[in-house]
């Protein structure tokens, strides 16, 4: 899939980017796949606010940009939330 010339991969810092910064990156895109990182807050030494800023606020920025774009029809969220700690 990543070898497909119709696929553009964009890596950006969701904490630094604004919705306005993201919208032009989505120009012409039909779909957005969001795979924002998340570090579980139950692990020791994890900054809960940082996790919230990346997983929640960052994902919402990307979703808002996709909604504001004129071409994005699908938003696909990939999450591995809690997959490394079964039973919690």
**Rg (CA only):** 15 Å
* Helix content, binned percent: 25-40%
Globally, the shape reads globular
Count of helices? 2
Overall structural class, as computed from helix and strand content, comes to alpha+beta
**What characterizes the major β-sheet?**
2 strands, parallel
The ordered string of helix (H) and strand (E) elements is HEHE
Describe this entry's structure for a reader.
The chain has helices at residues 19-22, 48-68, and strands spanning 31-34, 74-77. It has 88 residues and is α+β, with helices and mostly antiparallel strands. It is globular. 9% of the residues are buried.
Question: Quick summary of this structure?
Answer:
By secondary structure, the chain is α+β, with helices and mostly antiparallel strands. It contains two helices and two strands, in the order αβαβ.
Task: State the main characteristics.
88 residues; alpha+beta; two-stranded parallel sheet; 2 helices; 2 strands
Task: Set out the fold topology.
Blueprint: H1 19-22, E1 31-34, H2 48-68, E2 74-77
Parallel strand pairs: 1-2
